[in-house]
Design a protein that fits this description.
By secondary structure, this protein is mainly α. The protein is built from 5 helices and no strands.
């Protein structure tokens, strides 16, 4: 992400918004829910990793070794996001009822709520 290299929160947000737009476009074009769920996981992880990297960059001096902290943070985020996606997939399997558009709305809402929770 260009926003991370520039140290810009807005750049990270813009890049993540483009990824999210691609997710929405895929849903509108009829992508299968498992693919949308995987894409939503990737968008959430990318956004959180970018924001965390920019935050570390502003808090520490330039050139500080932050790779280890970033990897630990991304690993924890990936664990939480994957568990959340697993619950979402379970809900989809149990209550799908043949309505993929409803599932898309639920997945998108879950992604937005998860990103909002990460910011709090």
């Amino acid at each position: 992400m260009l926003g991370v290299f520039q140290g810009s929160d807005r750049g990270v947000f813009a890049g993540s918004a483009l990824l999210f737009g691609g997710l929405v476009l895929g849903g509108v074009q009829g992508a299968r829910p498992p693919a949308l769920l995987l894409a939503a996981v990737g968008v959430a992880i990318a956004y959180d990793a970018g924001q965390y990297a920019v935050t570390l960059g502003t808090q520490l001096r330039a050139g500080a070794p932050t790779h280890r902290a970033e990897l630990v943070h991304v690993g924890a985020t990936a664990t939480v996001v994957t568990a959340t996606a697993g619950v979402g997939a379970l809900v989809f399997r149990v209550g799908a009822g043949g309505q993929p558009s409803t599932a898309l709305v639920a997945l998108l809402l879950a992604t937005v709520l998860f990103v909002w929770a990460l910011l709090r």
